[in-house]
Amino acid sequence: MLPIAVFLLAWELVARLDLAPGHFFFPPFSTVVQEFYHLTLNGILLDNFTSSLVRVLIGFSAGSIAGITTGILMGYQEKLHKAFHPIVSLLYPIPALGWLPILMLWIGINEMLPIAIIFICSFFPILYNTVTGIKGVDQNVIRVAQTLGASRVKVLKTIVLPLALPNIFTGLRLEAGMAWRVIIAAEMVAIPTGIGALLMRAESLLRIDIIIVCLMVLAIMCFTFEKFFLYLEKKVTGKWR
Amino acid sequence: MPSIELKNVSNFICRDLNLSVEDKELLVLLGPVGAGKTTILNIITGLISYEGSILFGGEPIDGLPPNQRGVGYLFQDLNLFPHMDVAANIAYGLRVQGRSKTQVGRRIRELLTMFRIEGIAHRYPKNLSGGEKKRVALARALAPGPEILLLDEPLDGLDLKTRKYLRMEFRRIQRRMGITTIYVTHDQIEAEEMADRIAVIHNGCLQQVGTPEDVFFHPRTEEVSDFIGQPNILDCESSRILGGGLVEVKCGGVPIVVPHHGDSVRKIAIFPKDIYVSVEDPPGPDINRFKGMITEIIPAGPLTKLRIRVGRNEMISELRNDVFETLDLDQGTKVFLILKLRWIRVL
Known about the structure:
The complex is a heterodimer.
Chain A: H1 2-16, H2 29-41, H3 44-76, H4 78-91, H5 100-107, H6 112-135, H7 139-147, H8 152-190, H9 195-204, H10 208-237
Chain B: E1 4-10, E2 17-21, E3 26-30, H1 37-45, E4 51-56, E5 59-60, E6 71-74, H2 86-96, H3 101-114, H4 130-142, E7 148-152, H5 160-177, E8 180-185, H6 188-194, E9 197-202, E10 205-210, H7 212-217, H8 222-228, E11 232-235, E12 238-243, E13 246-251, E14 254-259, E15 267-270, E16 275-278, E17 289-300, E18 303-310, E19 313-320, H9 321-327, E20 334-339, E21 345-346
Parallel strand pairs in B: 3-8, 3-9, 6-7, 7-8
Antiparallel strand pairs in B: 1-2, 1-4, 4-5, 9-10, 11-15, 12-13, 13-14, 15-21, 16-20, 17-18, 17-20, 18-19
Helix pairs in contact in B: 2-3, 2-4
């Protein structure tokens, strides 16, 4: 906490003493806090934040569920892996925002657009991590379970999935933060509501304090989502890892 | 418990295996590293494909997948489930069989007591010692009550004392449960101590199957002979019963005490590794210790063989090269020998 306090104090001092070049564009921290308070009080921040949060939650949940399910099927069924791996390998490297133009034409500019972007942003990396996790499970451990009488489905449920969890959690953790970065970019470019849209409006009004408020909300949400999955991972796998 | 029978079993490593293990028998599969011992176990459990036929209790089981063969398999690497504690590891086979909670609980307690691991029931594998892991893995393999047990080098990597202790434990449990067992090892002492019969395997081929005495003292192929080593065989001129299962024989004018129930002993055998060599008179009772003279030094890979004249006998002993170098031995050096009583065999 101390480094953060020192950073904020330095920021306040530099801005108040006009030490930064172009001080007009560098409001002190206290002004940003004040603006945060006003935006919260008049409901603007909460409305935009809620819009972004709902989009992230829906898009990320759908992308994760689809990514994990497809990952399990591809990781555990060699035939499916052979069939789909080349396609996934081609699509995975495309940045999520790269899909924006084509999705704007396919879906149009509506609520589904940012959700679809978040879905794609989450789906491929989580799918990739799930496949890696499942394929990385020691074959001999699977063999032991088989000799103890476990069917393929039982082996998947009781051995393979639990042992693939660390990899799946890594994917979820990284992509939870990424989802917020992507939603802000999508809203900035194409959607009139949400934190990204508020940020763009603030830019056109030269309201640096509001821009910084938006960036702080983004930083806090990325951090919170990542920490949540880190906590969940430790809770679920910490005992045996 | 059923017998195990392999009929003309072959795959990419093993060739034309014909082997049968009797009901309740403990058969040791003995052979050098890479001989194909683990492959045979994997074939029996159905984990790898093969040609030929395998029968349990006279019934062919070739069409059955591994989870329906009812075999308890202790893998060399143990492969405990890292995400389950000891109790859950042991319970796994019972749970997949759909046993009730009460049955599972009772069986876990029984096995924890049998293997003396009650105190570690809630520990995870990462917090277990090597010996504890072995016991947990064996308890897990036995939990579902398999009719056949396969053990792949179960004591490898443990210290000598723990090995000795666990050998006795395994044998005790195997006898108590009367379970048909195949035990894989490359350790001859372990094989001799554990086996009802030994099957020697080399390059994927079965070389010899017989009692420990049969295999160690009457090797039938050159491969077996090379792997086991050649024993010193001494002709006896006379023998005298000492009582308590001991007989004193005279070989080449030298009195040797041997473990034997009976009287006439014509030949005895002892392996080179079981003859202790020292440059100084070692302390201890004056039984089976002799003075001799080195007549020949024969380098043999990591070992050095010493031909030593004792009375009218010529005996071969062997030392690890590093030990040989520290002893500063030469042709003509006078040495003291101790024949390890326990390892002298009457032929």
